């Protein structure tokens, strides 16, 4: 006996009596589903998962591009905070930061750019020793940006999780973003490299290089 | 200095390049006294590893004498050392857990961009093995700059010849870890695919770890002879149906552990291997995995799969069903050389392990290109080439 002949014969429903309401219910469910999907898909900050905001599929918020990156470093919060708080140390591990000069409460960053360099002026807006440093650009800065680096204990004695978050308005809009990517000055890539170099420096005492000499 | 450099597929040459110098405090400069061509160098030679550039100095099996050491190095001028092919900082999460080949810090940050999207996390640094693993100038040269020289190099005591200890740099610990990854228990049968240097050292190691029987699979008569001399039973896959033979040689059970010491350039005319070869040649980033597929099919239920063979890309027709339904476990990875160096050096001194039987040819560094060509085209007679600068 074939498998098909063992299946019960399909019964034809009384058309109209069932199909109408079923169609309506189906369409309503589909509508609700789509609405929920739409909301989660495009309301980046509104989604209720536990992931950090900078991992949202949407990466620009009100004209700002937001990037972030974490790294776990086998060192205590205090020494990592101290190293970072002295902005003069940053060029040791930040590839594109040529110099940081601080006068009063304003720091002036000289940052390598595809043509020459740009100057960013920032002011500290939050400073909690061993926990967090946040800064925001001043009115007369070349680039409109704000950033934060936070330090928290990693689980299992692994050291400290260092998380950097930066929001900025890319000069030149979409064209500028494309150019930055192509010239290797994409801030996302820079943040990733810089945090890895910070880790190298703090764990091994040197920034790794494969140079022959 | 003189060094073997990559020019293009099947074109390597000994060129004059600048001498290395100390860059970081923990560096040392080694004057190479002996270096070898590794089977995995042939993957570079064949152009199947991406990220190799013209002018790159190859070689990751080398030893020599310390001629300069930075203030952070623990080495002293004049010491003889063997240098692990894996570069490890000794202080990151992985190094602290003896997972030296997973070091977070040894690959320069700008080179990590290449492998993070490819593998999920960035690879560690290796000597002379493409820019994916750091772009470090390799050891087939007169001099090498060795980073983190306080962690990697092992100092060799007087009374041991270069050839007795050179293979501590890679293939001996790699064969040892391959066997270690099998969790061998008394009475176990271990099957090893590939009787190249790593396969042969895996056979030797499995025996020392108490395997009752080791069965080696290859097709080169000379290599099968070497395996037999180490006490293995052998299967020539050209004349024997491998799966059936392994089942019969293990009383219908299958080997307790299997080792794929072949890697991404599997030989043979099996249908899956022909398809893989075509894909690899047209550049699909495909690996040739015939040996691995066969090893998984052969392995007994609840058995262990150890994979020292090198892979870089993707594999299809992976016998995932057999792997799951039989409840297999797999362990693999680049070798955590530093974890094994001391113990293996001790075993060499005690005469428990001999590595010199492997060396078939000795050439001056100047003839390195000839060594590559022959090692590549005549694998039966050319089992291992040692170069002397």
TrEMBL record, chain A:
The chain crosses the membrane at residues 20-38. Coiled coil: none annotated. Residues 74-171 form the Coenzyme Q-binding protein COQ10 START domain. It comes from the Bacteria. Keywords: Membrane, Transmembrane, Transmembrane helix. The keyword Transmembrane applies. The keyword Transmembrane helix applies. Belongs to the ribosome association toxin RatA family. This is Coenzyme Q-binding protein COQ10 START domain-containing protein.
TrEMBL record, chain B:
Coiled coil: none annotated. Its cofactor is Zn(2+). The keyword Hydrolase does not apply. Residues 197-264 form the Alcohol dehydrogenase-like C-terminal domain. GO terms for molecular function: oxidoreductase activity; zinc ion binding. Belongs to the zinc-containing alcohol dehydrogenase family. PROSITE patterns: ADH_ZINC (PS00059). InterPro entries: ADH-like_C, ADH-like_N, ADH_Zn_CS, GroES-like_sf, NAD(P)-bd_dom_sf. It comes from Roseivivax isoporae LMG 25204. The keyword Nucleotide-binding does not apply. This is Alcohol dehydrogenase. Residues 25-153 form the Alcohol dehydrogenase-like N-terminal domain. It comes from the Bacteria. Keywords: Metal-binding, Oxidoreductase, Zinc. PANTHER family: DEHYDROGENASE, ZINC-CONTAINING, PUTATIVE (AFU_ORTHOLOGUE AFUA_2G02810)-RELATED, ZINC-TYPE ALCOHOL DEHYDROGENASE-LIKE.
